[in-house]
Amino acid sequence: MALQSIRANGVFGKSRVAPKLSFLTQRSCRAARVTACAAAAKAPSLPYRVGHGFDLHRLAEGYKLIIGGIDIPHTKGCEAHSDGDVLLHTVTDAILGALCLPDIGQLFPDTDPKWKGARSDIFLKEAVRLMDERGYVLGNLDCTIIAQKPKLSPHKENIRNNLSALLNADPSVVNVKAKTHEKVDSIGEERSIGCHAVVMLIRKDLS
Question: Per the record's keyword annotation, is Plastid included, yes or no (predicted)?
Answer without folding.
Answer: yes
